[in-house]
Amino acid sequence: MDFLIFLAIIGFGLLLLYWAKIGQQAEDEVLSKKYKALYERINSKYSIQKHYIYKGEQGIAFDSQTDKIILFNTVSDKVFKKQEILQVEIVEDGNTISQISRTGQLGGALLGTMIAGTAGAIVGGLSASRSKVEKITDMKLRVIVDDTSSPIHEVTFFHTSKNEAIKKSDATYKQVYRTILEWQKIVEILIKRADQEEQKLNIN
């Protein structure tokens, strides 16, 4: 009798594992379709050199022919010329850990106006030390643009519940950080190009 109960428990456990696997496969298939649909829409409209899509819901892309950044979701796209990008930040759990800003006279003035106009809501305090926080649940790339109606745009690169927070020593964190850092550097290049073009115009 005990042996039969044992077999029943084992069988039920295997059945639960099977259902979980089927459920995960269905979820992966849905995400794959959402990702493909979003990518095809963006790729058909722009000359995409590089792109990143988070869970088929939102993302960022770089149009190499026009030096523009496209921020998009399932509903709409927003395209920004390099001259319109004022600042780019890496944000972990709401704290800015890395920040690149326009240094040119025009870009700096615009960014100053944005900050003053939003009572400091755009630029949060830079974290004193990344090492002080051992675990995180959220990583975003924040792009601030010359648009008073909607100056802040964020792209999620990682998000989970508090119970599943990842350590900064984990491989998952390191992989996500490398990806988000690469995108910050791409935007930084565009910011520097805009500053250089402004400087040339001022000299002439």
What does this 3D model show about the protein?
The structure is a single chain. The chain has 204 residues and is an alpha+beta fold. The protein has helices at 2-45, 105-117, 171-203, and strands at 48-54, 58-63, 68-73, 77-81, 85-92, 95-101, 135-136, 138-145, 152-159, 166-167. The chain has a four-stranded antiparallel β-sheet with strand order 1-2-3-4, sandwiched between helices. The longest helix has 44 residues, at 2-45. The termini are far apart. The model is unreliable at 115-125 (pLDDT under 50).
Outline:
With 204 residues, this protein is α+β, with helices and mostly antiparallel strands.
Descriptive tags:
four-stranded antiparallel sheet, 44% helix, 10 strands, globular, 204 residues
